[in-house]
Structures are given as C-alpha cells and as structure tokens.
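Quick one:
INPUT:
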C-alpha cells in the first residue's frame, strides 16, 4: 500500500479534501484517515461504524478521524478507543498535522483565510471537481454544517481559472464547481465578485473546457448574471440541483430559509421557459418539526410543480444544539412515510422525463469501462457501441449517442 487509506463520508467537498489529505500524507502507509460527515445523526453513526471497521481490518494502523462530525462533537470521538488522532476541518488541510500524532481541533468560526488546498479538487476518471468556496454564513435551524465548516470563504477567481486550465490540459472534459454554499461565493473577496462573475471568467478564461457544472445551489441567490449563463451558455450543462428543503411557507420560515414556495416555483418556471431541457434536482427534508399533513402535502406537490427528477430526499434528523431539535418533533414513522411519498413522486417525474428522451440524440461523457456515463442534462446513459469500440477506450470522452430506450431508470444509447 502506498500512502494512507482514505475512508470518506458525505459530500463532494469531503471527497475533494480527502484527495488533498492523500497527497499531504503520501508517505504515511500506517494511517487510515476517516473523513466524517455530520449532516444527519445517521451520518455520524456511520462514521463511528467505519472507524470500528477500519480498526478491525487494520489493528496496527493509526486511525486519524477528521471532518464535520469531529469538528462538531470532538469529545465523543476522542472517547473512542480505536481513534489515534483527531483533526478539525482546518487542521486536516495543514501538512504538518500528519507529521505528529497530536489531536488538534481549533475554533472553525475563527478561520478567515482562503487556503491553497481549496483549488486542488479531486477527479473521477472523467470528471474533475474543484472546490471554490467553503463554509456558510446562513443559520438554517436544522443544520450543524456552519459549525463544522465555519463562515463562508471564497477562492480568488484567478486561482480557480488556473486550476481548471491545468485540468483541461490533463484531458478532463467536464469540471464541477463545489462548495458548502456555492451561491454565496465572493462577498469576502476584493470587489465582491459574484458566482455568476466567477463562472463567466472560467468560461472566458478556459475556452477549451467543454462542460461546466455547479453543485447544489440556493435558488434565491441565482442573480441575473448567473441566470443568463445558466439559460444561454451551451457549455454550462442544463442541470441544476437546488437546495429547496420544503414546499410549505410556514416550514420554510421555521427552517429559517430565505425563499418562499412561490419563489422556488417561479425560478424553475423561468429557467425552463428560457432553456426547456434543464433538468431539476433538489434537496428536500421530510417530516421537519411541526410539519402537519397539510404542510407535507404542499411539499409533495412541489415535486410536480418544479418537475424534480433528481431528488436528494431524507427524513428529518434532529441535530443536537440546533433550534429545530428543540421544536415539537414529528414521529419517526411519519417522517419515513413522507420521505417515501416524496421519493415515489420524484421517481414518477423521472420516469416521464426519461421516456420523453427516447428518440433524441445526447452528448454523453463516458465515465466507466462498461460504457455508462451522463448526458448534458445528467441523465445516466448506458451506451451500446455498435461500431465495435469498447467502453474502456471511450472513458473521459464525449460521445454522440442516440437514445433508443430506458431500462431500470437508465437510458439505453447506441453509437453507430
């Protein structure tokens, strides 16, 4: 084995930072680094499970645990006998942290600097992910992530453009910009640049980049500059994942969200009116405290109103120390039932959408040896190469594909 073993839970940002840690601790074959997630109680439970599993598999290895769960509840992880070292979210990005066995978890809210690691990103075989922002200035009542990530910090656009140029030179055809709250990009930088301006600079500064995507967006923060790029720039992919969370105004208010139900529906309608092929994904919480059946019905209707075809849906999970944890709780069975209904509604929307793509031609970025990849609208496509080529030779390439059917929620495509 060369370098540390990485076990990563949670978001794309964590995966990007795990790759940075792999490089920083490249000479430490004796380490298992567990990069934790704290977004739900289940994520924290899985982190503990992975720590114990790692120690059983490699009893002689040092187990270093880091990430948001460590940042928000360090004492509970320090009490685990399997853990050799704890590192906070700031410390895990410092090479010197891996040169000792000292546990270091500092006050993440005091972090202000933009660290060079933010633009290192990580790559799959076909797509590269570049972190352009970290932290969050908002305080949604259900969320502990600001206390794990700190306040919002942005990466200067010049550094981002240079990193993406290098990735394109390495042969990557698609780049995804990631962050904790990507649409809050810029106010901490000189001149207060917006996310729209950053995207504009990337597209202008890296003309050889074929495809650009964004990770989860807050729809209320899509300004006119970004709207024009999303709807009018062919190199910006027609797929958005929106942080909607609920479809009832009272629940949105109690969540301390910054948008109303009507604003979400209106934004999606505007986007689709200008660029009908845009596919919509969304984060939705089922069974938020105080949610009545009527409120849950309003959220369920949002799936159809916004034509949500990719749903990140999960039952509400109380996080200690958050205001929502002190509100009247919805019974767990009701949360699970509401989540099931939301997933079912999303699945029906997705089926209708996929069926409508049969007979079209799609440009697919091949990501796996078996010929599976994603179209520009993020529909998953399995390619049957009738020309005699094979998937392995096409990985990382964009292939013109004719869609001939749908099987198990995946488009079937042919290359003639």
């Amino acid at each position: 084995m060369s370098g540390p073993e990485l076990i990563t839970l949670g978001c794309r940002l964590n995966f990007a930072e795990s790759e940075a840690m792999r490089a920083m601790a490249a000479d430490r074959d004796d380490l298992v680094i567990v990069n934790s997630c704290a977004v739900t109680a289940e994520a924290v439970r899985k982190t503990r499970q992975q720590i114990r599993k790692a120690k059983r598999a490699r009893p002689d290895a040092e187990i270093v645990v880091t990430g948001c769960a460590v940042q928000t509840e360090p004492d509970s992880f320090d009490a685990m006998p399997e853990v050799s070292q704890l590192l906070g979210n700031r410390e895990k990005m410092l090479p010197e942290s891996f040169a000792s066995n000292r546990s270091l978890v500092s006050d993440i809210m005091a972090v202000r600097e933009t660290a060079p690691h933010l633009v290192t990103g990580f790559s799959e075989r076909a797509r590269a992910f570049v972190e352009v922002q970290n932290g969050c200035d908002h305080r949604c009542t259900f969320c502990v992530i600001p206390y794990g990530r700190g306040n919002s910090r942005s990466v200067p656009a010049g550094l981002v453009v240079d990193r993406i140029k290098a990735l394109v030179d390495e042969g990557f055809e698609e780049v995804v910009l990631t962050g904790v709250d990507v649409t809050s990009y810029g106010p901490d930088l000189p001149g207060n640049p917006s996310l729209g301006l950053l995207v504009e600079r990337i597209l202008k500064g890296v003309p050889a980049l074929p495809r650009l995507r964004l990770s989860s967006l807050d729809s209320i923060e899509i300004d006119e500059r970004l709207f024009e790029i999303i709807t009018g720039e062919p190199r910006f992919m027609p797929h958005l994942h929106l942080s909607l969370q609920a479809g009832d105004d009272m629940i949105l208010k109690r969540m301390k969200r910054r948008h109303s139900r009507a604003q979400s529906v209106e934004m999606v309608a505007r986007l689709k009116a200008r660029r009908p092929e845009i596919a919509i994904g969304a984060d939705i919480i089922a069974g938020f405290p105080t949610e009545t059946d009527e409120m849950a019905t309003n959220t369920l209707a949002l799936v159809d109103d916004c034509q949500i075809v990719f749903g990140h849906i999960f039952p509400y999970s109380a996080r200690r120390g958050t205001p929502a944890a002190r509100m009247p709780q919805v019974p767990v069975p009701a949360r699970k039932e509401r989540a099931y209904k939301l997933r079912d509604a999303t699945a029906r929307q997705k089926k209708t959408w996929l069926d409508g793509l049969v007979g079209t031609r799609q440009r697919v970025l091949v990501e796996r040896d078996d010929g599976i990849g994603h179209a520009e609208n993020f529909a998953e496509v399995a390619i049957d190469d009738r020309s005699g080529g094979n998937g392995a030779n096409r990985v990382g390439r964009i292939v013109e594909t004719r869609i001939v059917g749908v099987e198990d929620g995946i488009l079937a495509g042919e290359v003639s």
